[in-house]
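Retry 2 of 3 after timeout on previous attempt. Resubmitting structure tokens to design endpoint.
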């Protein structure tokens, strides 16, 4: 992990790139999958480890983003999580965060970086995403676990399942009558 300035430069750049992107055919197909059973009185839940909100942008409603979102912030003082689509997220980050290795750290003082706007709090904001080594939101994990235990069908789409955590989830559907046709499964290498 770099300095606070480097972290925000990196996430600012990612937010700017993602905000310019549109959902692809796969996102739209998954949204259509959700809409069709809804018309038949059934329910589809999308559990994703993506943080780019493209499922949301495609219109998916029942969405569990277990790794958080690029477009949410969390206050390091009061803990409030808030949506944030500002571009740039704070003025001092404008034009910063180019991905080239030779890019210099802008060394932005922490006090000029993104700050909480809750009444009486000016705490430093951080991206509301799960970083390596951090615990993810237990409420969302429990909800994902519950949905996987209850579901009649689990489709695993668009992942090699080699990133930790989510690979643990699909096998929870295995006992009993559950089916999980995996469209992209590549077993982790030993
Ligand atoms: Zn705060």
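Retry 2 succeeded. Sequence:
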């Amino acid at each position: 992990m770099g300095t606070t300035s480097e972290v925000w430069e990196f996430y600012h750049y990612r937010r700017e790139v993602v905000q310019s992107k549109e959902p692809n055919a796969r996102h739209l197909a998954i949204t259509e999958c959700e809409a069709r059973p809804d018309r038949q009185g059934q329910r589809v839940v999308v559990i994703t480890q993506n943080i780019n909100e493209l499922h949301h942008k495609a219109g998916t409603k029942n969405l569990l983003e277990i790794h958080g979102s690029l477009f949410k912030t969390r206050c390091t003082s009061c803990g409030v999580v808030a949506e944030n689509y500002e571009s740039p997220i704070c003025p001092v980050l404008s034009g910063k965060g180019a991905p080239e290795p030779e890019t210099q750290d802008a060394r932005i003082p922490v006090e000029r970086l993104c700050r909480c706007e809750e009444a009486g709090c000016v705490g430093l904001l951080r991206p509301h995403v799960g970083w390596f080594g951090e615990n993810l939101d237990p409420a969302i994990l429990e909800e994902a676990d519950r949905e996987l235990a209850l579901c009649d069908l689990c489709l695993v789409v668009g992942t090699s399942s080699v990133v930790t955590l989510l690979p643990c989830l699909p096998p929870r559907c295995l006992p009993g009558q559950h089916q999980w046709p995996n469209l992209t499964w590549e077993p982790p290498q030993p």
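Attempt log closed. The pocket of zinc ion is lined by residues 75, 77-78, 80, 116, 118, 121, 123 (CB under 6 Å).
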